[in-house]
Predict the structure of 4-diphosphocytidyl-2-C-methyl-D-erythritol kinase.
Amino acid sequence: MTHETVIVEPAPAKLNLALHVRRRRADGYHDIETLFAFCRDGDVITLAPSRKDEFRIIGPFAAALTASAANEGPSSAPADNLVIRALEAFRQRFAVDARCEITLEKNLPVASGIGGGSADAAATLRALARAHGIALDDPGLIEIAAGLGADVPACLAGRTAFGTGKGDALVPVAQWQGTPVLLVNPRVGVSTAAVFGGWDGVDRGALDPADPRGGRNDLEHPARLVAPVIADVVALLQAQPGVTLARMSGSGATCFALFERVDDRDRASAAVSAAAPEWWQLATALA
Ligand SMILES: C[C@](O)(CO)[C@H](O)COP(=O)(O)OP(=O)(O)OC[C@H]1O[C@@H](n2ccc(N)nc2=O)[C@H](O)[C@@H]1O
Ligand SMILES: Nc1ncnc2c1ncn2[C@@H]1O[C@H](COP(=O)(O)OP(=O)(O)OP(=O)(O)O)[C@@H](O)[C@H]1O
């Protein structure tokens, strides 16, 4: 590392306030239109100079990424972690070979539609860019992000944005900052590829970026086929007093509810705890 100090970089949870699937492409990906928003909370990446490379995962969902190696295959190996893939791509692109120690505090459930891995990769790239004096809008950095996953460019920018193409063509949108939000995950992991694979191929029309409430999440139906409990999560959130919008995020299974008032969000959180104490929750606000 050229830097002397420890860099702490937040990897906030990503939400898709609406997500319209328009078309399956020849490369297997789908053209989507989505409104990305980011929460004030999420995972945390810490980057420190070190004599040798080290990677640690701590936090409530650390075990989901490490201990599951046996039943989830190679994607759970540390070398396949998006943090390490981001580090390697950065080193190659910017010809950096200084050793470092990276700690991932895994607070977000894995494979849950809130971009955990994408957010971690993006935060790693931001931390490395800061350490090596590279601008966050450097085209090389954005190119690395796009190569790591469709959601990574949005997570790199970390700002409310309208996304088209694979979700990687971004136009910033200045809205909804500070909106109280409750995230709820029924602790069922959902594969993004499987959910896109279950889309019925029907184009239900464009998304108006000014009107997420008038939009949809076209992945909710195929995600419910994989994890039927998602319908219960959305129904419970929609029934809470003061909710302005409740919907599934990304490819699921995490669902979110937006509120005008913090006390309504907190009352909803208590109601969800009472109804389903085993479900994961995060009471936060849009950044
Ligand atoms: C569902 C969203 O989270 C919404 O923001 C994203 O579209 C998914 O982003 P991501 O997890 O970064 O996705 P990637 O890791 O690039 O892709 C995982 C798999 O999802 C499918 N995929 C993803 C994005 C997209 N626009 N079309 C797709 O069909 C592809 O099968 C791909 O192999
Ligand atoms: N740092 C990481 N955090 C979470 N998952 C990771 C990470 N690195 C690699 N992965 C792998 O990526 C897969 C998808 O995880 P992730 O949490 O990013 O999905 P997601 O929340 O559905 O993302 P998205 O909303 O972008 O579709 C997991 O099954 C996991 O094996």
